[in-house]
Amino acid sequence: MINLAQKDIQHTLGKFIVTAMGVGMLLGIVLIMIGVYRGMMVDAEILLQDLNADLWIVQENTLGPFAEASRVHEDLKNTLRSIDGVDKTAALTFQNLQLPAATKPVRVVAVGFDPFGDINAINKKRLIAGHGLTKDHFQIVVSLKTGFKLGDTITLGHDNYHVVGITKGTVASGGDLLVYVSLKDAQRLQFLYSNARIRNDRARGISGGGDTKMVNAIIATLKPGFDVDEVAKNIKRWKHLAVFTRAQEHTILTKNLIEKASKQIGMFTAILVLVSTIIIALIIYTMTLEKMKEISIMKLIGIPNTLIIKMIVQETLLLGVLAFIFGNGFSHLIAGNFPKRVVLETPDALALFAVVIIASIFASFIGVRKVIHADPAAAIGG
Question: For residue 182, with 0-12 CB atoms within 10 Å meaning exposed, 13-18 middle and 19 or more buried, which class applies?
Fold first, then answer.
């Protein structure tokens, strides 16, 4: 039996392929949007994985430094070791910085930690050049994408910092690159006021130049055999602080902080899928209109509606499949050019393929309806 869809597509092959490529670019953007969301989830987990802490201790009635302002005393890391079950502790600071570069400043998140402490914030697996921090002052480890090289000097505040190490794949939850400095330098950058500010405060009767013995969070690891929730309750009870387990901190980073962004991406993705469906429907409707005379002739000579409808549905499905193939290739082609991480996963592509097939079937109904109402007499009259 002659395949009507195959014959019709062969007749307008170039137009059919170009149309599929156009729809495919829309579907490619859908995959990119899903990939951006996946990338945000991956970025949010990097710092948690590198620090590998069981507990996050932050200022009371706050969600911690990733969600809102948090300040606790640095020496809390020492007193926390007296809590039964606590093994290692470390004080950390987090702050946004603009690294001066040749073209334009590079926005980063600086992690301050004690290089001689119990917990090293730098994951050695991500260190691709140089070494970690070995001094209390004026050393910095940067991400590869900052553009700085080993031995470069970066001016922050009134001091010069020397690049001693380079990492790869280190980003904060918001996608900004991570750099690492010593805790003392980080406190100086974050909490110590400038000379002009100190003089201005003294003129106002305010003494002091800022408390530099503060940090944004304390992290802790537990000894084997201790229940993390029970230890967290003990810290809350005796120290009057907010304490989050690793799972709770993961929830804060992956849901609380990117919830609105994920909803926005989801809405945009749904709109693109809807637009793609409408475009496919319009294309099939136009293709059906262009061959209404031929359809009328087919009905006039006795070809059943079911065979003609089968042709329309087959063309629609083939258009959807080709569009998905082009879209999948397009998304992988441009994913690496985005400033933030884009993670393209096979399950997401398969889910989109299923949606495209369903959308194509629904889109074919508009062409099917036109076929059913086609008048065989139009073949004679026109």
Answer: buried
